[in-house]
Design brief:
Shape: globular
Order of helices and strands: HEHEEEHEHEEEHEHHHHHH
Strand order of the largest sheet: 2-5-8-1-9
Number of strands: 9
Largest sheet: 5 strands, parallel
Number of helices: 11
Distance between the termini: 47 Å
Length: 292
């Protein structure tokens, strides 16, 4: 139901270039303090690629808490988070998953990713008692499980008609969470993130930001460009891709929309770029020519 134990139940690495508002940072400090006194659940909603999962990881890294991430989107049964029966040496045995161990690890962070995307809505039923003040659950196979002190549950979701396979989160379940809404970073901060994380120049970052703003401000294009996509563009340009190439491979859109972006940038910033129509033999000699 999750990654290996080596990748979970350990404190994640701190991202040195992760920006949030001062107000949000203060809220997370209060969440940390509150978790010492009582159970805390936090629901984070926002645009795709705006850093919801990264925010959970950064919280765990700052406060030195072991993090475990569980993909809710693959759940089809209420008890599937905890374990399953499997055939072992000709005998049916119950195999416990990581989740029971994670919730019994003091001060751990439990990340329920895409909580509104289970294969079956009733798959979340087992979470109700774990997210309540009692913080416990009974399973016939494992007995009484009690959530350890200091454990913080984070759930992340994308909401809206654009996201296929999502469900409206049950009101009773949603009521158990504090709620945070994330959005794009301010332009000057997103530009700083681009420069520091990808290594592009300030001029290149300006071009990327101009493209993002053009697309985000044009509802007819139906292109919602996330910070994640912006970093993909920056990574490509940092290794030598042209602006047009970086946009073409990073934006999941058609040629017409791409041309609209480039034309818009030409009008606004005078940006021009020629495209080579030459075809070459793509073999070992091409690799050698690029290395020489």
């Amino acid at each position: 139901m999750s990654a290996t134990k080596h990748e979970n139940l350990s404190v994640p690495q701190l991202d040195p270039y992760f920006y949030v508002s001062r107000d949000l940072a203060d809220i997370f400090e209060k969440i940390h303090l509150l978790s010492r006194k009582k159970p805390v659940n936090v629901l984070i909603s926002g645009r795709q690629g705006c850093g919801k999962s990264s925010l959970v990881k950064q919280y765990a890294a700052i406060y030195q808490r072991p993090l475990s991430t569980f993909q809710v989107g693959i759940l089809s049964e209420p008890s599937q988070l905890f374990g399953e029966y499997a055939l072992e040496a000709g005998e049916t045995k119950y195999k416990q998953f990581l989740f029971p161990e994670a919730i019994q690890t003091p001060n751990s962070v439990i990340h329920l990713e895409e909580i509104n995307r289970p294969e079956h809505p009733k798959a979340l039923n087992m979470l109700f008692s774990l997210l309540s003040d009692s913080r416990d659950v009974w399973l016939e196979e494992l007995g009484h499980l009690k959530v350890a002190d200091g454990v913080v549950f984070f759930a992340t979701l994308n909401e809206g008609e654009d996201f296929v396979g999502t469900e409206l989160l049950d009101a009773a379940l949603r009521d158990r969470f504090y709620f945070l809404l994330m959005d794009y970073l301010p332009n000057e901060v997103e530009k700083e993130v681009l420069i520091k994380k990808t290594g592009v120049t300030a001029a290149q970052a300006d071009d990327i930001m101009a493209a993002l703003n053009f697309m985000r401000g044009n509802p007819e294009m139906r292109v919602d460009v996330s910070t994640r996509t912006a970093l993909m563009i920056g990574d490509m340009m940092a290794v030598g891709a042209s602006f047009r190439q970086a946009l073409a491979v990073s934006l999941q859109t058609n040629q017409e929309a791409l041309e609209s972006v480039l034309i818009g940038l030409h009008v606004r910033r005078g940006h021009t770029e020629t495209v080579s129509n030459e075809y070459i033999l793509f073999d070992h000699s091409w690799q050698q020519s690029t290395e020489s």
